[in-house]
Sequence to fold (544 residues):
Amino acid sequence: MQAISGPTAPVPKDPQPSVDRIDELARRIISGDILLPKFQRSFVWERKQILTLLDSVARGYPIGSVLLWQSRQELRSESSIADLDIELPRPDYPVNYLLDGQQRLSAICGAMFWNGDNPKSRWNIVYDLRAQTFLHQDTLDDLPPTQIRVNKISDPASFFKHVAFLDSLASSDKGELQARAEVLFNRFKDYKIATVTLGDMSIQDVAPIFERINSTGTPLTIVDLMRAATWSPEFDLIDSIEGILEELEEKGFGNVDKKVLLRNLSAAVGGGFSADSIDQLRNYTAEELKSSIDDVHASYKRMVDFLTTQIRIPSAQVIPYANQLTVLGEVFRRFPVPNAEQYNSIAQWFWKTSVSGYFGGWNTGMMADDLKAIKEFASGNTGIINLVVSKPSSDLWKTRQFRLNNAHAKLLAIVLAHHAPIDIINGQRIDISKALSWTNSKEYHHFFPQAFLKKKGISGASVNSLANIILLTSASNKYISDRAPSDYLQDVQRASGVNLSEWLKSNLISDEAYNAALNDDFDLFLEIRSKDIHREVLDKTDWK
Fold:
């Protein structure tokens, strides 16, 4: 569905806060007034989590807020919750979709309204009045008066009929037990929870809100939203995407962002990469979606082969920009078997987009341009993937700092890996697979030691610049400690002998940069090495 824009577009209502009784929210779910989109496959809480939630309500502890979306968008919703059938949605719209709080309200619904016949059910829960604790039962037989099934709370007559049995007890605390039962009943009937209802808005507007929800530890994304929009018994979007990722896991690409694959599915059915195009997925049949996801699956296998063999990237974690995978996936979907020249063009595209930071601001217009360029490339009208981007300056290697989430830091790591770097202290080859696992920075250290530069009053930004980073084992880094390069490089000379130049160049340190370091000239070293790194990257493009 195309997003409405311009002066005639309806203005979304501001979020409406309210305070609602928790049992009323549960009843609204069962009656179909609040719908549960198919964001999750099923209820995933463990039994202990359910009991903890009920205990929090009984004690009056806060359990978080609930987020509803009042919308005219039609999403697939659950037909049952916690072993309970849910009434069909009203034929009129808008409806209220539960965005955040599904697990909590599912637990409340299951515990308060369970009417099943399985004694082993997770919803067969009782409250022990003497121990003042919730526990699971494994029988449907009548219970002693001191234990009350939680599902009786939804039926006052049944609940207080059970409480009346307490009069038959011969104990002196029966009055106290009756008082505890009444407190329990009133607590669940009067317990209030903060509810925020979002007004009717487009998927494009609500998606960023989805991606920021994390009150239960499981953030929702636009992928979850589109799963609910496209779900059918024949097609489950998340199952399909996860099936692809499971196979790619063997090659280190199992953690690709699902949203990246969603863009590829949108393009494969004939749309584009944008959120508007993604929203159109709801208009396709399960058969069309299944066929297109199969195409995406095949293209991703070809793309991963290309990245691991041609670019020599061992995992998705070290890809500079996630959306590079979107474009590459579409390239290999449209162009299954490139020839050598075309492979070279694709590789040049990768290096150019990486060093230029092209994907750092990938907007809707750029998405459309890139899709057009892919089509032209695949049709043979051009020998390259057209890319309108300026060649960057080598200064970026001086100004960008080493951070694990920095695209240019990842690019530096890839380039270093191409040279099979050697530890300049002990002469051993660096374990590239470990260095490029990108889970920590233990293999990446400063050529000019951090402590040495700090004593010289050099700013932290310069100290941590990419041009000052090499691959080095932790043991060797500790050996260097805070020594001046003019000092520790004497050890490097003795250890390397005639191999000195080879050891240095494996870390992209030229003779000129080395001589600057021998003079402890940090500024000159950064200037020279920045140009050396930049030259190495540009050599992999069609830039000169």
Notes: The two ends are 45 Å apart (CA to CA). Residues 396-538 form one domain. The longest strand covers residues 192-198. Confidence is low (pLDDT under 50) at residues 1-11.
